[in-house]
Amino acid sequence: MLVSNWEPDVLGDGYEQLTIPLGTDPDDEGDVAATLVRYQPEAVTERTGRAVLYVHGFTDYFFQKHLAEHFAAQGYAFFALDLRKCGRSLRQGQTAHYVSDLSLYDTELDEAVRLVREDTGNGDVLLVAHSTGGLVLPLWLDSRRRRGTPVPGVAGVILNSPWFDLQGPSYFRSVGTVAVDAVGRVRSRSVVPTGLSEAYGASLHADRGGEWHYNLDWKPLGGFPVTFGWLRAVRRGHAQLHRGLDIGVPALILRSKKTYFSPGYDPRVDTADAVLDVKQIARWAGCLGDRTTIVPIEGARHDVFLSSEEPRAKAFDEVDMWLEWLHAHATAAAD
């Protein structure tokens, strides 16, 4: 696989991007590529030989500079991956975020880990993922272990509000899933009629009174259309998770303490998960197959690292405490 050279990234000073060509799309949307972003500040603190690889969720891409800067301050080399047809990797004529099978992402995940380890001296890699990315990563790790080729160098996983089951009424998860499977098989790019609310996006974006600046072409306030074929792939991924996985490494799961769904912006959206049902995250958190720590964050948004200042600081404190434990645990296991 021939990759390009590192080039300046849209995030500005200290950020670079690398295109990872993936060849012809198995879903018939031309050539596809992924994009690896790295953060290399001029004033590099003492390196630990460790790296972070971050993976976004649906209707998302990497723009959270404060996340990169936090891990860099802890001595980690920071990298993020925009998956095929997402963010920096979306090409004209392609259906944003569309894949017919979540395992298609294995190709860029394998290559991203290889490039990160090559760039950082083959040290440990901490995987961090949000929402749909928090489903994709465990499925990939489990698949590699089942094939007898575990992903090399992975030390642990941090999942930020992972999408472990479908939100909404219970019939969405029963007869609704049967319907999605049937329609998704024959009309894969037809759009699910239930659209996404703008409430979460409005709570985030600076133009709507939020704190964060990001590209609305890559992360629309109301989300990209949800297609039956993509949702079918997600529901099949959920079924795999519910049968039990073995990711092979410890995991930290961060989530909000409560869910609040709203058709439009409401101040209560600022202190709750407005996208996923946190009860479903809690229900299935034990399916990862290794030691799992679950921490609800009071007042957190769907992306806990995009919460307001107090819950965001609490989330970072929990990350740092867990990392101390992870390093001690790894040291003890090696003795």
Automatic annotation (TrEMBL):
InterPro entries: AB_hydrolase_fold (IPR029058), Hydrolase_4 (IPR022742), MAG_DAG_Lipase (IPR051044)
Keyword annotations: Hydrolase
Pfam families: Hydrolase_4
Ranges for domain Serine aminopeptidase S33: 50-257
GO MF annotations, alphabetized: hydrolase activity
Transmembrane segments: none
PANTHER family: PHOSPHOLIPASE-RELATED (PTHR11614)
Record's protein name: Lysophospholipase, alpha-beta hydrolase superfamily
Organism (species): Rhodococcus triatomae
